[in-house]
Amino acid sequence: MAIARLSDIAQRAGVSKTAVSKVLNDRPIRIGAAKREEILKLARDLRYRPNIMARSLNRRSTRTVGVVVYDMSTLFYPQLLRTLELALACEGYQTLICNTEDNPAREREQIDNLLGRLVDGLVVAPACGVGNIEYFRGIHDQGTPFILIDRYFPDEPFRFLVTDNQAAARNGAAWLLDCGVRKLTYLGERGRNPSVDERLAGVRAAAERRGLVLKDQDIVLCDTNRISIRKALQPRLAQARPGTGLFLESNRMLMGVLDTCRDIGKTVPADVRIVGFDPFGPDLARPADFASLRALTEPAPTIQQDTGRLAALATAYLLASFKGESPDAAAWQRRLPAKLVVPEDNKGVAPA
Amino acid sequence: MAIARLSDIAQRAGVSKTAVSKVLNDRPIRIGAAKREEILKLARDLRYRPNIMARSLNRRSTRTVGVVVYDMSTLFYPQLLRTLELALACEGYQTLICNTEDNPAREREQIDNLLGRLVDGLVVAPACGVGNIEYFRGIHDQGTPFILIDRYFPDEPFRFLVTDNQAAARNGAAWLLDCGVRKLTYLGERGRNPSVDERLAGVRAAAERRGLVLKDQDIVLCDTNRISIRKALQPRLAQARPGTGLFLESNRMLMGVLDTCRDIGKTVPADVRIVGFDPFGPDLARPADFASLRALTEPAPTIQQDTGRLAALATAYLLASFKGESPDAAAWQRRLPAKLVVPEDNKGVAPA
DNA sequence: CTGAAAGCGCTTACAG
DNA sequence: CTGAAAGCGCTTACAG
User: Fold this and answer.
1) Is the peptide bond before A269 cis (omega within 30 degrees of 0)?
2) d(CA B305, CA A28)
3) What structural domains and CATH numbers belong to chain B?
4) Which residues of chain B between 42 and 71 are close to nucleic strand C, CB under 7 A?
């Protein structure tokens, strides 16, 4: 059973392709109700599905949006992608999701492919590094609606939606300091980008406002695997006592921190207070995880990015662009506030 | 700056479109090295990207696979999708991911759209219910390579890759019984499908082998939200004492279980032993979650589905189909073993 | 109003 | 070997 084409229906109904096209697409056409029904029935019976390749080739638009992220399985991405897909679908747009594995070359490949598919717009959480800036300029210049999320490039004209990382980190660090932290360590990933640099800057700012200066050894950058974290953190936490605080650039690093605490017999928050970005991902079935979790005796505050808003704004931007509006850059280079969620159980005061 | 076409390059290079096409696609053509370079340079300078719509229309193949799941943000899906995308990309196929929100009508829409895009194959984790069986038959008859994952329809010719739910559940329940459980409760979702029905059957089988019969009141089906779970489970667990066991159809329900335990002052595994399918998803920052987690005093065993294998086999099936092989149904209606991961901390014996 | 014809941007069989 | 021409399946401006 071959795939039915418009002409198959036209032939059987004894009308022109034009007529069939117009009936199926609900365009104005004067045609008898019986003929119209016959065409619709034939389409159903033959399981007709318009060839979107052919249609798009003709229309030069696909009602499709490409979403390219560095890792769709991590952090808030699963939720974000789902929300984004839903919002776009409500507006009649289909979403094509691609992974780059944080690899710039793969990122170019994926985007080239999507553009070749004539996506109407792009949402990109870019891979690490600045290697693709030139490439993105090409896309920007070609006029494809395109917006970055989560990560961005300062000093470029590209639209972006990111969390106000500096303010969010400042609030988080302020909370630690309000809890009486006097010795503050920043734990971050070795791979840097402006978004995480801003987190560090926010922590610095909060500290300095209290007359505390972060020295080089207060900033620990390492790989995100647990072994690296233990190795890097152990010397710092060995002397941990009340008044010791740890800011986690990402809660992906939390389990490594708890491992370290367990190893040296410290607990959170009694010996070390922590606050970090984004959700946790422990595995309660792994004995090692479980044991380390026991080092956490109270829920820890987290900085939660507003993925719902991110998805909604990205959608709004694309829709506006599709309508031909070209909202000025300033309005669409936005930093969204994040929420510092301090569990009620915790002692300490949340900053205003 | 308009999008460059093949003809733009041909015109500037003073050659035919044929020549340009052959050079860019590395097809055999006798052409001077200089001309070849000139064409390649022009393509680069004009940022030429082949129009995949046009190419596919012509080739009747897109080197694209559609993946349609009921919820890409839950359970093992983020990992599975990432792995699948990677495996397919290694073979030169692009992956288009769609969400159906477990809604059959939306599922049809999404698949229709993907087929209209001439995807070469489909991987589907179908929405609940049997309403789309007829629709899937149409796809199957049309010969589009197509394989179901996670959920399936018995008695249909569709290929599928699912976990051997019955065997996995049997092992899990056997573990509980080996731990001395004499009173076994099955906690499942209200919405049923063959995959989860098989889990129930597996638990029944394990119980009966020990002379234990699950009665109606031993099977608790409710919504997956925590309030429903507490309401449904409280009467059962109020009398919990050593020898009480709980089988979780999905660990999505775990937090509701722990809530219940906390409410009534029971702990896991001292008062209630549990085992369940798939990873946990607690939020350590929510005081309520954290408090409930304290009811869990040891890591709990989980039944882990083999997502890596699932992704690899789905890829293998599609590739074989694309090559024109049509492996017989039996070989591709597969139930994959799951692993019962029993943390070493736990007392009790893992069945062979 | 209606339908034949042109055209979207490619690829490839085929005539020169 | 080479390039003009046909054709993939649609949509739509336009001639009748």
Assistant:
1) yes
2) 53
3) 6-50 (no CATH), 63-162+307-336 (3.40.50.2300), 165-305 (3.40.50.2300)
4) 48, 50-51, 54-55, 57-59
* Inter-chain contacts counted by CB atoms under 8 A, chains A and B: 168
First to last CA, chain B: 67
Contact A158, A140 (CB under 8 A): yes
Distance A290 CA to D9 C1' (A): 58
Q: What does the angle CA B232 – CA B234 – CA B239 come to, to the nearest 5 degrees? A: 135
Q: Which of B54, B95, B141 sits opposite A1 (nearest CB)?
A: B141
Distances (CA, A) of A132 to A121, A127, B42: 18, 8, 20
Question: Could you list the pLDDT tens digit for every one of the 352 residues in chain A?
Answer: 678 999 999 999 999 999 999 999 988 888 888 889 999 999 999 989 999 889 999 988 888 999 999 999 988 999 999 999 999 988 888 888 889 999 999 999 899 888 888 899 999 999 999 999 999 999 998 888 999 999 999 999 999 999 999 999 999 999 999 999 999 999 999 989 999 999 999 999 999 999 999 999 999 999 999 999 999 999 999 988 889 999 999 999 999 999 999 999 999 999 999 999 998 767 777 888 888 888 999 999 999 999 999 999 999 999 999 888 877 878 999 999 999 999 875 544 344 3
* Nearest C-alpha neighbor of B150 from the set B203, B199, B103: B199
